[in-house]
Automatic annotation (TrEMBL):
Cellular component, GO, one term: plasma membrane
Any GO BP: D-methionine transmembrane transport
Family classification: Belongs to the binding-protein-dependent transport system permease family. CysTW subfamily.
Name this protein carries in UniProt: Methionine ABC transporter permease
Keyword terms: Cell membrane, Membrane, Transmembrane, Transmembrane helix, Transport
NCBIfam families from the UniProt entry: PRK10782.1
Source taxon at top rank: Bacteria
Subcellular location: Cell membrane
Family annotation (Pfam families): BPD_transp_1 (PF00528)
Record domain ABC transmembrane type-1: where: 23-214
Membrane topology term: Multi-pass membrane protein
């Protein structure tokens, strides 16, 4: 038994630095791409909702164009997207390999995903609340800021949680093309070097990371949901 503990301790000492670095790279990729994805995707979702037929800022032509772009973005598998935008990534970052380079396809993949989730969240707001605000003379911007977004906040937070969980899985896929993070460790050390232990540990760490994100998201939803 003592020998088993010694072997486990030696394994941890040898691989702890690698796993900690990979975890940080995963958090970096997910965090940065998530922030940019939300910064662009949330306003885009609001525009999609408000420019639809009967919306606050009805503009069917703009809605159709944006909707088509979002649909194209959502329809491309992430691995295909990473390869397809290699020239753009290289132009922007200077390379298409590495953790920072992986943020580019992660962000581009997140934006349409977020936009559709936010559009769906805003659809859940009762139309009566919007009509009541309009009858009191509220401007479209006031209705968006004081009615639509606050009322949809629990669903928006849930959408953010779903997006972050999805980005964790995307970041693991980025590891297959040298994107770094836990996925990269699982491929290079777990798969190519047939290290079953490190493969299992990386899978467990990804599961734990997803559980933490989901738990925090659920707690925030309960806190802001007063229905």
């Amino acid at each position: 038994m003592a020998m088993s503990y010694d072997v486990l301790a030696d394994w941890f000492n040898l691989n702890s630095g690698l796993l900690l670095k990979a975890t940080w790279e995963t958090l970096y990729m997910v965090g940065f791409s998530g922030i940019v994805g939300f910064a662009v995707g949330i306003p885009l979702g609001v525009v999609l909702h408000t420019t639809k037929r009967g919306g606050l800022l009805e503009n069917q032509r703009l809605n159709s164009i944006l909707g088509a772009i979002v649909n194209v973005g959502r329809s491309v598998p992430f691995l295909v997207l990473m390869v397809a935008i290699i020239p753009f990534t290289k132009l922007l970052i200077g390379t298409f390999i590495g953790t920072t380079a992986a943020i580019v396809p992660l962000t581009i993949g997140a934006i349409p995903f977020v936009a559709r989730l936010i559009e769906g969240a805003l659809l859940e707001v009762p139309s009566g609340l919007v009509e009541a605000a309009q009858s009191m003379g509220a401007t479209p911007l006031q209705i968006i800021n004081k009615v639509l977004l606050p009322e949809a906040l629990p669903t928006i937070i849930n959408s953010v949680t779903i997006t972050l969980v999805t980005l964790v899985s995307y970041s693991a896929m980025a590891g297959t093309v040298g994107g770094g993070g836990l996925g990269d460790v699982a491929i290079r050390y777990g798969f190519h070097r047939y290290d079953v232990v490190i493969m299992a540990v990386t899978v467990v760490m990804l599961i734990v990371l997803v559980q933490i994100i989901q738990s925090v998201g659920d707690a925030l939803v309960r806190k802001v949901d007063h229905r």
